[in-house]
Each structure stands twice: as C-alpha cells, then as structure tokens.
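> call design_seq(struct)
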C-alpha cells in the first residue's frame, strides 16, 4: 500500500474519531423526528432524495454532516459516489450503514469494529431435521416441545428491525420442515432485512424454491459434504441424500436464487474440497463456503476427524487461490482465512481480503489497514444466534446461553452480556492468540477454543501458529467437568 493511500485512510479514521462528530452522530441516532424516524435515518433518506417529511434546520445540519461522511468515505476507498447513494435505497444496506454509524457514535473506531447491534442473526429455526449428520452442532432430530410460536417469531423479527439488524439467516435443524418459515421470512423481508436460508437441500423442490422466492428469500446455502455419493451420504447418514441435495441445488440455481454450497472440512472429505468447488462451478453455483469443523453437538463424537493445523493452513491457501482466480467466490468460516488472504495478497499483489465469511472485498490498496477493523471471528461481535426456543448464543457453534428472548430484549442481551462483551475485547484473548500480531485480523475461532478448552478466550488449537508456540497452560476439558456458564441442554438422539 502506498504512503498516500495509508495517509488517506488514517486521515479519514481520525476524522471519524473526532469527539464532536461522534457526539453529533450519537445525538442523531438516539433522537427522533415527530415521525418516529431518527435524525440519522432521515439524513440517509435525504442522501437518496427519499425525504418523507418536511425539512427543518436541525435535519439539514445532520444531513449535511452525514453527507460529508459518505463523500469522504467514498473518496478514501475509491467507491463511486452514485453507486453508494443507490445502495442506500436498498433497505438492508441502509440498516447496515445505520449500524456502522451508530457504532462509531457510541464506541468510536475500535479494533476490531464494534457494533451496537448484530449485523447478522442466524436463527436455528427448529430442531427438526430429516437427516442425522455426524457433525450437527444442534444434534437436530425432532422439534423440541418449547419451540417458539409463530406469533413469538413475528415479535422477534420486529426486534431485529428496531435494532437495524441487516441480515437474517434461517438455519436449523432443517428450517424447511417448519410450515411457518415462509410467512415469517416474508415478514422479515417486508421489514427490510436481507433474508437467507441454510438448508441440507433435500427439501428444495421446485415448489419450495418458488415459495422461498415469493417470501423474499434472496440467498440459499446448501450443505454438500462430498463430491461423491459415498462421502456425502456417510456424513449425512441418510442414503440417497446426495442425489436429493444435488437436485435441490439445481432447482435453486434454475430459479435464479443466489445459491451457495457449504461444505464442512474434515479428514474424511479434505481431498474432495477441490472437486466440490469444481462441481459448484458446473452447477452454476455462485459461492462456496468451507466451514470450519467445530467439535460440538454431535461433532463431539468425531473430534478425531478435525483437521490438523497444517492441513487447515494448506486448505486455506488453496481456497485463496480459487478466490483470487475469479471464477467463483470461495470463502471460509475459519477466521485464519482473513490472515491467509492478507498474507497471500501481499505476496501476489492481489488486494483481496475476506474479513468475515460473509464476503470477500477489494479495498483498492487499503486492505492491510482495514483488516484490523473488519476481520476475524464475528461471534458476539458481528452476529449472534437464536435457538428454536428463543435462547440467544454468541454463535451457533458456541452453546453458551447469554439471554432469553422470551424474557429479555435483543438489545439488552447484546449490550449487557458479559460473554458477548468479552468476545468483543481482543485484549482479553489468552495464550498464543492473545499476543499474535494478527489478533485483530483473525482472533482465532472462539467456538473452537470453547469446544476444546471450555474457555472462549483460550487459543484456537487449530491454528498453524499454535505449532510455533503451543499453549501448554490450556488443558483439554471433558464433558464431565463442571460448567461455569449456562449451556444449552444436550439433546439425546
């Protein structure tokens, strides 16, 4: 990155840290017009010439300040101003920017970036599932008797909207097994959220796909854990699931839904990952996400299939090669992928970064400087999970209960949970992760730390950098040891 590029980013971030500007943004985010819309929301409407109410002097002041921030941001990151303004007309993009601005007003420009509400909520919509996957973090089988009612689900969507949550991902279990999925998804879409569904694909019939599209679902992520019938079916433990999943993927692609294939990397399928990516290209899939294996849920029973640190590092470098090739977007939930992308970008002079598993971005020569703010584990920091009964956890792979939406608001849980606040503070990381030069870019997988050590601040045992300096102070914990945090009860299958 050139010195001029570095200076422009530093200048912009310093400007955002100005106490007076932060005070203005805080005021604009917390004070409403008579319409109920905050001054900050109104300012973004003014940017797109989508003003709904009569102007006032105070509104004009806030609008000009926000306009200046957007203009400077576009100039700093070489973003076309018209494209940025057009994007603000997209409801979920506007929600995301509101979240960013409110975060700057409340916390400043932190490393990594801290938000006053999650960008993404993953909702384990039901515990029901028609497969019996070996690695299922949910131990999904049958619906639990205390699952949320449809009306309770609508109320939760209202909370997501009120807190400017940008995206909602329905997961499971198998979300398509619950009949009210379509109406709740449609309700969320109507509230301006980006709605996606993670599914095993076996129920993605042409009719189901059409219902998803009509409900406003924009993205479907289909699990495929092998390029062959033998590998996939042995992992999913239902014969014939491979063919049904492939047909589901074809149905989704043909309908025009943005389709992603998700594969969990283990020793059983590691060498089929390239074949899965090639299969995705042939099927017309736009994205492949390789999931980091977490030995939780049923996955506790196959922890021996976890990749070694060296195997993980090798596959991450391969994924970066595919990503930089440009034929298909290849992402990974392992936070080390952010580090690998940064390292490989500097070597190959390709300015591509995957700061989270949600996207890969080109920061136009400013990747290294932005990585500290955006990258790494997002558990409790950028997203959280909702269980079928309304319990909230920092991540679908971390079964620590931090709140109950039947008793508390999402805002209260997000802002006040000790676990969530610990996860946002990288200075609290222990062992190798605690003093790693990439701790803001990566931070290690907190769910893996918890799965192996029952300590979400412990080092990630799957990182290759652990081999340089093993964290011998951390002993593997067993299920029989006393837990110090409220956990989701294990479901016996």
């Amino acid at each position: 990155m050139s010195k001029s590029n570095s200076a422009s980013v530093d200048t912009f971030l310093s400007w955002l840290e100005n106490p007076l500007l932060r005070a203005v943004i805080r005021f604009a985010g917390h004070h409403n017009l008579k319409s109920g819309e905050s001054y900050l929301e109104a300012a973004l409407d003014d940017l797109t010439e989508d003003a709904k109410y009569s102007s006032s002097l105070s509104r004009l002041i806030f609008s000009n300040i926000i306009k200046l921030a957007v203009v400077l941001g576009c100039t700093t990151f070489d973003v076309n101003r018209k494209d940025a303004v057009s994007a603000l007309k997209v409801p979920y993009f506007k929600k995301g920017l509101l979240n960013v601005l409110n975060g700057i007003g409340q916390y400043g420009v932190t490393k990594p970036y801290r938000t006053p509400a999650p960008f993404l909520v993953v909702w384990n919509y039901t515990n029901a599932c028609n497969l019996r996957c070996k690695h299922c973090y949910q131990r999904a089988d049958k619906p639990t008797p205390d699952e949320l009612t449809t009306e309770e689900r609508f109320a939760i969507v209202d909370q997501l909207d009120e807190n400017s949550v940008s995206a909602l991902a329905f997961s499971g279990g198998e979300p398509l097994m619950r009949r009210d999925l379509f109406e709740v998804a449609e309700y969320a879409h109507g509230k301006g959220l980006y709605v996606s569904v993670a599914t095993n694909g076996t129920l993605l019939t042409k009719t189901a796909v059409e219902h998803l599209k009509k409900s406003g679902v924009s993205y479907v992520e289909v699990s495929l854990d092998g390029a062959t019938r033998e590998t996939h079916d042995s992992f999913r433990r239902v014969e014939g699931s491979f063919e049904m999943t492939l047909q589901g993927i074809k149905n989704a692609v043909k309908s025009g839904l943005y389709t992603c294939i998700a594969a969990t990397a283990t020793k059983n399928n590691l060498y089929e990952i390239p074949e899965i990516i090639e299969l995705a290209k042939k099927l017309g899939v736009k994205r492949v996400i390789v999931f980091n294996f977490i030995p939780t849920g049923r996955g506790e029973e196959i922890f021996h299939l976890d990749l070694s640190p060296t195997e993980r590092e090798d596959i991450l470098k391969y994924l970066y090669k595919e990503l930089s090739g440009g034929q298909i977007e290849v992402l990974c939930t392992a936070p080390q992928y952010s580090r690998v992308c940064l390292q490989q970008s500097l070597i190959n002079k390709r300015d591509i970064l995957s700061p989270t598993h949600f996207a890969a971005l080109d920061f136009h020569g400013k990747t290294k400087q932005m990585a500290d703010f955006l990258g790494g584990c997002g558990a409790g920091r950028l997203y959280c999970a909702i269980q079928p009964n309304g319990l909230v956890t920092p991540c679908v792979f971390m079964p620590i209960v931090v709140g109950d939406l039947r008793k508390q608001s999402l805002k209260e849980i997000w802002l006040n949970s000790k676990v969530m606040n610990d996860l946002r503070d990288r200075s609290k990381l222990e062992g190798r992760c605690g003093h790693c030069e990439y701790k803001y870019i990566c931070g290690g997988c907190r769910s893996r730390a918890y799965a192996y050590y029952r300590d979400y601040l412990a080092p990630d045992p799957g990182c290759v950098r652990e081999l340089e300096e093993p964290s011998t102070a951390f002993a593997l914990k067993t299920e029989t040891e006393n837990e110090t945090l409220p956990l989701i009860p294990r479901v016996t299958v």
